[in-house]
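Submission sheet (multi-component)
Chains listed below:
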Amino acid sequence: MTARLGVVTFPGSLDDRDALRAIEQMGGEGVALWHADRDLRGVDGVILPGGFSYGDYLRCGAIARFAPVMDEVRAFADAGGPVLGICNGFQILCESALLPGALIRNRSLRFVCRVVHLRVETSRTPVTSELIPGEVLEMPIKHGEGQFVASEEELGKLEDDGRVVFRYAGPDGAVADEHNPNGALHGIAGIRNEAGNVVGLMPHPEHAIDPDIGPTGGQGLFASLLAAALAGASR
Amino acid sequence: MNLEELAGSLGLRPEELAEIRELLGRDPNRTELAMYAAMWSEHCSYKSSKVHLRTLPSEGSAVLVGPGQDAGAVDVGDGWAAVFKIESHSHPSAIEPYQGAATGVGGIVRDIVSMGARPVALMDPLMFGPLTEERNRWLLGGVVAGIGGYGNCIGVPTVGGEVRFAEPHSANPTVNVLCVGVARADRLMSSATAQPSPGSLMVLYGASTGRDGIGGVSVLASATLEEGSEDSRPSVQIGDPFAEKLLIEASLELIEQGLLEGLQDLGGAGITCAVSESAARAGLGARLDLGAVPLREPGLEAFEILTSESQERMLAIVPPANLERVEEVCHRWGLQTAVVGSLEPGGDLHVRMGGAQVARVPVLSLTEKAPVYERPMQAMERDADDPTFARFEGDLGETLVTLVAAPNVASKRWVYEQYDRMVQGQTVRGPGSDAAVVRVPGTMKGVALSVDGNGRYGALDPYLAGAHAVAEAARNVAVTGARPLGITNCLNFGNPERPEVMWQFAEAVRGMRDACLALETPVTGGNVSFYNESGDSAIWPTPVVGMLGVVSDYRLAVPAGFPASGLAVYLLGESFAELGGSEFAETVLGTVSGTPPALDLEVERRLHTLLQDAAAADLLASAHDCSDGGVGVALAECAILGGEGFAVTLEGDLPPHVLLFGESASRAVVGVSPEREGSFRGLAATHGVPFVRLGETGGPRALIDGMLDVPVADLTEAWESAIPRLLGEID
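Outcome: structure written.
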């Protein structure tokens, strides 16, 4: 049995094809979903991909949260289905209040595209279940608005509940300001919701699969997600 | 204003107005005059450059589509075509850097899409004045942000480029944008494959038409910039990359479904150009109803609608039976459509608005009957000084550090980190490589790309600058192991009405011609950017070449940096006493003088063949071309990029600084594993390429026996920090 993962294409989505290719390369079945459809086509997991949905006019992700497909994604998440938001997908999850906090302009006020190191903080999510906390992954970032911020109270809860999933780090896993590419609070690169089934991150695991192209730090995330989706499907 | 005055204010010469009267057999009305002014502008008609461009070779076994279409195309094998073109957006960028550069990206991407290809890569050769001046820092920041802001948002990776600095580019920065697309060769939308018929509909889709960019080609791009040129800002178009992304997806779907007989982007000269070129290619006339054009605001006059350069619009030629399906695709992508006219028998373009005819002109009078000038030329005087023979007693190690920190040489990380270089997931080698390599999806093939142009050489000898631009671009493609297939060129010059500028242009084209013939890389298209001057200050003559090559297995693409210790380091090619026009002469001696290096094109060709064959046999661990800063800088870059030092000896009859920093052409530094040295030497001998074993890689130092000994870390720091330091971001 093969896990079926849906990838939503909004107008302005850019890394949707890349996410579909990553799913296939990791042995899953990718299912293209369309923003205007109220239909998830029976998938076992959902990815909201990177890009500039609706041009990111107004505010990143602010328009996409109203897309018809998002009602279905919300219901799927509420039912415990695994949902992964990558970059613009993370922004959409925050705008949809499926995840707390917000992503604002990078500290440098510039778009930044580079390969970074991430420290895995928890394996209690569908995208890190096959990873070990403390493990360091290499994958690219490419965003202009990736500085994670939250109120002090929210931030405290995230930390206390162990809901920070990834932090920007050095190659040795040390978290320090010099490794923080966008000024994110506490070096946060990715978080999960309280139930643990919804995860958002700014870096791009779908661009870290193929060793001919770059780093391979995304393989573990997709392997975990496919396993989680399969487990959900067989329940 | 009488007709003569109006023609003058639109950029038409009195003799051109007379020619229009002759063609029509009457006075043109004001709407018609605006159409001619746009179509006969230097930017659209190439009236000053055409006689020279015709001399360039444009045919070759790999060429599928040559010059004269929206973009050229070459056969990369396995049934795939690579479509590519370069264009300049310097004039708008000088006035409004963000939007000027952004709309440059948008325009070239639509050119590729209109050929039926998916855009897969962008590259940007840029030239600015020195970063010590605040305005130049503002221009660099704005242009880079504009390229990123647009390119990142449409999902096309920016995989490379070039950034150079020189005082003559202060007033007029040079902003060129190259786009590459891929398509199945049998699905290309060229005039050879698409056969529009009378009665087919002209469907305008995408953005509404507004007042932005009116006069862009005639007022802005075809005249020099003078004091108060900020007043021209309304002639700069405003980009909407989100609309462009939808336009790309919708257009490719329309082509994939086989619904179109033709596709044309709206760029310079707007609807007038798109409609007249579509009709001209079909050998037909056309009816156009301006009342059907969706407008951004009410009250636009006919001439405004006809010449507006509002962005993100396309014109499709659609058989009536396909109209409904075309509308369905566009509407699904959220794009509006409007049937604005139809192709008709006969050769006239009839334009109506509000039920009345506002213009009626022969289609070919706008396109093929545009004037062609053989402008007078005057050879420039040569400077007798040559820095090759100047005494130099400075410390060679310090000089190398200075050179790797020179803005032309230093790392451009500050620039390319603002570009998404990995979207689409096919970028095998990105910015910072000699050539970028992008996979052709679903195949093992890689498309290798390089853009090169050396304005310093242009200032000294435009013939050599043209030839070197082709040779260096081909060499950059060849060091990755790829076979160069063809070029697109962007010719950046001053005012062609000045005889010395026209001579520079003709010389550069002659140099390109000779190099393209010798290296068998035909010209598939390109762009000419004249009038890059303000007052009496013109840019350096800067012929820029975009070279496209193909490597049959992208996994064999060779990196530039030393990847390991214990490799043998070889220098391929011969070194001569050539410091004229070099980076060393400019940065260290403070002079741009002398003669650029000589170029033996047969020697160059042999080097390329050796590099390709050696890469295909997997004999090369690294390969890097020698250009700015000579062997010294090439070795330093190999060490910086690979993180591996070296210990070598440079011998020769030349003074040490000439050996180190001379820029003799047709050379490369390669790293070879010890067990492959025998095979490699044999292959080099077979190809007749001179080689010398310099030493080995390894250790933390850059050591050149008896000349210099510098920690690689110091070179890396100097190379990485130079641009951020000039921008005031680090101390």
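Remark: The longest strand of chain B covers residues 118-128.
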